[in-house]
Amino acid sequence: MIAVAVLFKDREIILPEVAALTVGIFTFREDKWIQRPFHIFLLPSITAILGFGINFLPILFSLKLLIVLIGMLLTLRLFKSQLAPALATGLLPIVTNAHSFLFLFAIFAFVLVLYCLIKVLKIKPIEDSVPIIYISHNRWLIAICVIWFLIAYFLDYVYYSAIPPVIVIAFESLNHPSLKLNVRLKRILALTGASLIGCLTIQYLDNLILAGLIDLLLVAVLLKVMNLRLPPAFAMVLLPMIMPKETILHLTLATFLMSTYFMIGIYIIQKKKYPNPIDL
User: Fold this and answer.
1) CA dihedral over 217, 91, 2, 10, signed as positive or negative
2) Total tally of structural domains belonging to the chain
3) N or C: which end of the chain has fewer CB within 10 A?
């Protein structure tokens, strides 16, 4: 993917969430993703079209984010899907201000390849996997996001309103009320660490392919040390490659603040709503 972006001299072809999907499917074997393999092609394609189209609207950046977020959540609800990375592919064209149709072609091509590989390699959920039970927590996610969008807007940090991997993790966390606090804190550190790695490599290495290879290897080591299964960390580490240059300087701090806000906020909500949680 990075090599293709270098070949075409267009960084919009670099799709961080494709890295997360690939690792989640082939390394971590995420059951909720593999159970409906066609959704891996369909849903990111739909959300990418939504985000790409909304990005052309002459409205406030924060409003674009809110509209696409609502549209994506409705899409996931319609298909009764928990494919959280589909949220990132919708946010990405707005966050990176994508205008090249190569972005859409790249999304279609890469997720189609993933779908075909699942079929060809006959990758299936584990035998004792739990069937997908869709439970909507959309109103909570929208409420938390709106508050964060407003904070970022009034502090004049609008470009940090939506860091896609953080929102992906937030969506997943809302579906796991039994997730322990220490795991949530480790997720904050993992995302922040991945962001720092990505920012450092893109600042000190001119070769995108080499930077990408180092990024992915270091994140794999980081997750191994922390004993975490966190595919969005692989998206987080590649995100600095396509972010506007002026945002990279504070991206790691923004990642830490945003992930802390979402993880702790969701934890507090769930403790009140599910005093004795059962993983959903």
Assistant:
1) negative
2) 1
3) C
Q: Are 145 and 68 in contact (CB under 8 A)?
A: no
CA 183: distance to chain centroid? 18
**Residue 133 forms part of a structural domain:** no
Q: Model pTM?
A: 0.93
- What pLDDT digit, counting tens, does each position of 134-153 carry? 566 789 999 999 999 999 99
Domain around 32: 2-125+139-273
Distance, CA of 176 to CA of 204 (rounded, Å): 38
Establish if 130 belongs to a structural domain.
no
Q: In sequence order, which residues have a C-beta less than 8 Å from that of residue 11 and are 6 or more positions away?
A: 5, 208, 241, 242
**Any domain includes 217:** yes
d(Cα 39, Cα 224) in Å, to the nearest integer? 28
Distance (Å, whole) CA 170 – CA 141? 8
The span from the CA of 264 to the CA of 262, in Å, is 6
pLDDT in tens, 162-217: 999 999 999 999 988 888 999 999 999 999 999 999 999 999 998 999 999 999 99
Look up residue 79 and give its amino acid.
F
Residue with tokens 């990758």: 123
